[in-house]
Amino acid sequence: MVFRRLPGRGRLPGAGGFRFSAVIFALAMLASAGTAGAAKTVYVDGKNGNNAWDGLCETWDGGSCGPKKTIQAGINAAVNGDQVLVANAVYAGEGNTDLNFFGRAITLKSINGPDYCIIDGTDGEDPAFRFEYGEEADTVLDGFTITNFRPC
Questions:
Q1: Residues 26 and 88 reside in one and the same domain
Q2: Do 113 and 51 share a domain, yes or no?
């Protein structure tokens, strides 16, 4: 098919010129939206992590990509729709108790379940978690043993 420009007009014959451009624009927007808002996984590893790393790699890559060390740092690195995966360990002390989602719709999940991922409150008087910023059903906590915390 050959298109030619009509004299005195800046579009192809008929109304298709504008529609074609609008369709291309809409497809380009859909393609970019598919990657721009994609949920990410943030990793936490209490044994091998470092809170200076970005949390976007399960293991350290030798640069700045590696797991966070504390659960709160993992939560803080996440945004709505993200998943925070927590490696096997006993998590206690600062950054691992009194955990706050700050209203984020995220999933906090242990990698291998509650037998291997323990949040231990022996070190202090803090609660395990605070859900006080309007968290709803899309804020998920899954696969942890929570022990030695004071009752609410």
A1: no
A2: yes
pLDDT, tens digit (0-9, with 9 covering 90-100), for 69-98 = 999 999 999 999 999 999 999 999 999 999
Cα distances from 144 to residues 6, 49, 89, 151, in angstroms, run 68, 19, 10, 17
The model's confidence at residue 29, banded by pLDDT at 50, 70 and 90, is very low
- Residues 3 and 19 both lie in one domain: yes
**Burial annotation 17-54 (CB, 10 A radius, 16+ → b, else e):** beeeeeeeeeeeeeeeeeeeeeeebbbbbbeebebebb
Give CA separation, 109 vs 4, 29, 43, 79, in Å.
Answer: 58, 32, 10, 15
Instruction: Please report the pLDDT score of residue 123 as a whole number.
Output: 72
* 7 and 49 within one domain: no
Whole-angstrom Cα distance, residue 92 to residue 122?
7
pTM of the complete model = 0.75
Same structural domain for residues 87 and 133? yes
What is the span of the domain harbouring residue 34? 1-38
Q: How confident is the model at residue 125 (pLDDT cuts 50, 70, 90)?
A: confident
Total domains present in the chain: 2
Say if residue 146 is in the same domain as residue 87: yes
